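Hey, quick one: can you model this chain's 3D structure?
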Amino acid sequence: MQKLIKIIVEKHPDGYVAYPLGLKGVVVGQGETHEEALSDVKSAIRFHIESFGEEVLEGEPSVIEAFVAEVGVQVQ
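Sure thing. Here's the predicted structure for all 76 residues.
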């Protein structure tokens, strides 16, 4: 069985970080490229499910869409 999982990929000065939405627990992947980060997080998700069981997957995906927003916050 294959389950689609939404992944957030962030670009940082030193590479990429990727993490899934809607998974119970913390799973993170990284890489020098977008593709490497996705591959790493996919491997980490498989390991997470093997380690903790399929209950880490929510029944129906609660995340329909993900958005990036930017707001100004006053700091001292």
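One thing worth noting: Strands lie at 7-12, 15-20, 29-31.
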